[in-house]
Design goal:
alpha/beta, eight-stranded parallel beta barrel, two-stranded parallel ribbon, 14 strands, globular
């Protein structure tokens, strides 16, 4: 059956189009910075928000109208999968992403749960035979069920730790079977609420043991997808072990895991960590661990993960600037970990939301490419740090200077003349590019 009868295939019609069901800026075949837009952006649909999200929030029940919600259990799971590939085809997206519990319901036992997964994965493989859409990444849900009340790999309960290992083992086998390009670790419950009952060292050591086990098993079965960790602050636990990119990098370095993992950076998580999106992308990029992106935006006036579709052109431009400077995302992509607003509850809103996000990143791509072509920020930064190109500055960066030579230089009491950073002017230049290209 068809689930979106009121929506046809979404085509590119250009910026002057008034058709809400058309792309204004995303032209998948258009060349930007040497690749097509489709190759540069690598868009992915998030299965959880798009097909299982019901619009509920901490203060209200679900509002979403979804044709498949009249069904339950495995019948519902099969209908969701059918609807998913209809949406993928009409949006013409190259990828999607999912948690294990998004695609198949949990059974009474782990054996029954795995049987449910096997049934849906077999169907998914059949759909993929005639679809261009592949799996960007898969992961497992180790946060929703009450068994994870004290955490997953950082739990105080060894039985839960063992269950998590079995679940990730199945996830890696799923990734290999479907040919996923990445496998994501999202530590939704990996944190603590009070140190009064927490063995911090044991929990972190166990998390590292778990990650090494995953690396070892992936090698054992020949799974070659990139491992990604998604930094996540606050919500639901007060002190998350994967708070931001720098925290995760410190963990990977301490436990000899840095050669096996890259970052899956989410814009809304950056907001919750009191960073901006570009900061998390830049920190990952300059450390060589920028792997993939969860494309959304948060609301700075709200203190939780609102997962809005990205429409802020300032943010999408600076994000694409970092991604282009990174040489692209490799096996990663731009996964819309985003959901329509609770008031946007009709099935057609799923298309309108994705169109808005895809157009926003397409526009950001074009502006970022032109900024890099014109070396706008590079020239500004090069001029700002010009004092390190000669004299005492050159001695500092070449390693010739020491405290004695620097003191001798300072004792000459030469006038110190700082230059203006001209932040306002730089942002005005960025606005010019946003409006012109």
């Amino acid at each position: 059956m068809k689930y979106f009868n009121n929506v046809g295939k979404i085509a590119y019609e250009g910026a002057k189009s008034k058709n809400p069901f058309a792309f204004k800026y995303y032209n998948p075949e258009e060349l930007v910075a040497g690749k097509t837009m489709e190759e540069q952006l690598r868009f992915s649909v998030a299965y959880w928000h798009t097909f299982t999200g019901d619009g509920s929030d901490p203060f209200g029940s679900g509002t979403m109208l979804r044709p498949w919600d009249k069904l339950t259990g495995m019948d519902q799971a099969k209908a969701r999968l059918e609807a998913a590939f209809e949406l993928f085809e009409k949006l013409n997206v190259p990828f999607f992403a999912f948690h294990d519990r998004d695609i198949a319901p949990e059974g009474d036992t782990l054996q029954e749960t795995n049987e449910n997964l096997d049934t849906i994965i077999a169907l998914m493989k059949e759909y993929m035979k005639t679809s261009k859409t592949k799996v960007l990444w898969n992961t497992v849900n180790m946060f929703s069920h009450p068994r994870f009340v004290h955490g997953a790999a950082t739990t105080c309960n060894a039985d839960v730790f063992a269950y998590c290992a079995a679940q990730v083992k199945k996830g890696l086998e799923t990734g290999k079977e479907l040919g996923t390009e990445n496998y994501v670790f999202w530590g939704g419950r990996e944190g603590y609420e009070t140190l009064l009952n927490t063995d911090l060292t044991l929990e972190l050591d166990n998390l590292a043991r778990f990650m090494h086990m995953a690396v070892d098993y992936a090698k054992e079965i020949g799974y070659t997808g990139q491992f990604l960790i998604e930094p996540k602050p606050k919500e639901p636990t007060k002190h998350q072990y994967d708070f931001d990119a720098q925290t995760v990098m410190a963990f990977l370095s301490k436990y000899d895991l840095k050669d096996h993992f890259k970052m899956n950076i989410e814009a809304n998580h950056a907001t919750l960590a009191a960073h901006n999106f570009q900061h998390e992308l830049r920190m990952s990029r300059v450390n060589g661990v920028l792997g993939s992106v969860d494309a959304n935006q948060g609301d700075t006036m709200l203190g939780w993960d609102t997962d809005e579709f990205p429409t802020d052109l300032y943010e999408t431009t600076l994000a694409m600037y970092e991604i282009l400077k990174n040489g692209g995302l490799g096996k990663g992509g731009l996964n819309f970990d985003a959901k329509p607003r609770r008031g946007s509850f009709e099935p057609e809103d799923l298309f309108l939301a994705h169109i808005a996000g895809m157009d926003s990143f397409a526009k950001g791509l074009k502006v970022a490419s032109k900024l890099i072509e014109d070396q706008v920020f590079e020239k500004i930064i090069d001029d700002r740090y010009g004092s390190f190109k000669e004299g005492i500055g050159l001695e500092i960066i070449s390693g010739k200077a020491n405290f004695r030579t620097l003191e001798a230089y300072a004792l000459q009491n030469k006038p110190i003349n700082n230059k203006s950073g001209r932040q306002e002017n730089i942002k005005a230049i960025l606005n010019q590019y946003l409006l012109e290209f």
